[in-house]
């Protein structure tokens, strides 16, 4: 009908005429109006996001398939369903998280009342990466909106189908005056970063993390940096190696290894290095069959540049299983490398792909020293039956998270904080930690004047 095409034309003209300054000014005006502060507004946005995820499951799933070869099952598990879990947990607990908390007033100051109040920060910028391009855009957004902020969302240009789907669908469901999606790569992000935000939430690599933090410093804007790094999986002698190998393989090769908390390498203590080899090979075969290229659950590398980077690492050790690759389809087989030297290129930077080196170390002391000699990882995993080993790893190493017996899954528990430390990032989110991140925690004191 003519009415809706006129509206469309108007929206198009408005979109073309809007630069980053206008976009930020628009959502800032909404924040300043106070519209986003009531609990009802926040819950309405979360309900709208929920509706979007359930009504548009197919559209997002197709986009994720096009960008990363993600199967519908994997797209649901790691992206759509993951965001819905976070959303439901937030809706269920939000009123309680936002309730003012009474604080004790020392005797000397009485009579008086003191409390702690969480208030929204203002305009939040979310910059998302490509490996979980929907989840890592929406989960921070859920926190930002639940905390009463307005937001600008910048999806990754490396996953263009998902980025386009977000840009097309989000404004159909959410308050358009409060949430804006800006698509683009380096120039667009650089232009956005010139604007003043009240918080910047960046997920990606440490090089860009530094660029983001430098830009934020100009406006004294606080940042959350969700970065990566090499997350080790320590394996101690005496554990069930078949079960251990299955857990490691599941954590490592999902999304073709492009998971920020995937085990980056195995730190095999004593004889486990050699003993693990057949178990890892069997676990890969058990999960993806004889031809992972034909298995629907096995993903693809995001682009040719990353494919080239990863295939260049295949000579850094003896191939136990895998090694096959095809540039045209961006396929790289789940690959395990043995006899890997700590000085090999594969052990220098985060692998972020389906290549798993096994690095032997003589004992637990050597494993702890190996970990502590390097950047603090985003996650540390260990397979051990020893309580003493668990205690030593907890006390003597530092990492974003520490998990015994199960890699990756801690990030799906919304009561656990998710974030890095040192070079793996700063700040944390998920569940109530997101509310902390996107709020100012204000002290309120009230003493009678007379
Ligand atoms: P990416 O290249 O998609 O970059 C992330 C974002 O930064 C994108 O939106 C991109 O447009 C923007 N960007 C890129 N270059 C820029 C520049 N010069 N200036 C301003 N903005 C720029 O993602 P990536 O960094 O390749 O992602 C992989 C890394 O992210 C890995 O290290 C991985 O471990 C990490 N990661 C961490 C988490 C986490 O939750 N901690 C999650 C996923 C990925």
UniProtKB/TrEMBL annotation:
Superkingdom of the source species: Bacteria
Domain Aldehyde dehydrogenase: 21-444
Active site, renumbered: 226
Keywords: Oxidoreductase
Keyword Oxidoreductase recorded: yes
Family: Belongs to the aldehyde dehydrogenase family.
Protein's UniProt name: Aldehyde dehydrogenase family protein
Organism listed in the record: Kitasatospora kazusensis
Taxonomic classification: Bacteria, Bacillati, Actinomycetota, Actinomycetes, Kitasatosporales
Span of the entire protein shown here: 216 to 665 of 665
